[in-house]
Automatic annotation (TrEMBL):
Pfam families in alphabetical order: Cas_Cas4 (PF01930)
Domain of life: Bacteria
InterPro entries: Dna2/Cas4_DUF83 (IPR022765), PDDEXK-like_dom_sf (IPR011604)
Domain DUF83 per the UniProt entry, residue ranges: 14-168
Organism: Streptomyces johnsoniae
The name this protein goes by in its record: CRISPR-associated protein Cas4
């Protein structure tokens, strides 16, 4: 079926990769249309940070993914409201690099911006990063393709997750 991330490689976006690294259950639920993040305060904060930071840049919409912006020399930029860098953020940037490369663009790397703590993290783009991005895609597709919901993470890892009510509600 077109547009189904189970079967259509072009439909795997950055959020899928971020959720893969955060929680496979979250990825599985998201891929099936469950979207509790729409009412989550932390998601709203992230959207506000994104809209009010780096206002002179423009999103790059690839269809399946939306990159915050790309600068000259094909450097991918992603803005996060988090106060701590996460492997999920770098995975998302690597995925964007892979998507651009597949479109014939020579990518040099990426930068994750954390405006609330005034830090950046460089995300290299080389053969190792490409292999990791491809592995992450395969892992995400495997999670999405399973017929049963993945196990919950320990509750301590679910702090401030918008999917908590689904996973831990009574």
């Amino acid at each position: 079926m077109p547009g189904d991330p189970h079967r259509d490689e072009s439909q795997l976006g950055g959020v899928h990769l971020k959720y893969l690294h955060h929680c496979p259950r979250q990825l599985w639920l998201y891929s099936r249309g469950y979207r509790p993040e729409r009412g989550n305060e932390l998601v709203a904060l992230g959207e506000t940070v994104d809209e009010t930071t780096f206002t002179r840049r423009r999103d790059v919409d690839l269809g399946e993914a939306k990159i915050d912006w790309v600068t000259t020399g094909a450097i991918v930029h992603e803005t996060k409201s988090s106060r701590a860098p996460s492997p999920a953020h770098a995975a998302q940037v690597r995925h964007y690099c892979l998507l651009l490369e597949r479109r014939g663009i020579t990518v040099r790397g990426g930068i994750v911006h954390y405006p609330l703590i005034r830090r950046t993290t460089d995300v290299p783009w080389d053969a190792t990063a490409r292999a990791q991005a491809e592995t992450d895609e395969a892992r995400a597709r495997a999670v999405i393709a399973t017929d049963t919901t993945p196990e919950r993470l320990p509750r301590s890892r679910c702090r401030s997750c918008s999917y908590t009510d689904y996973c831990w509600g009574d």
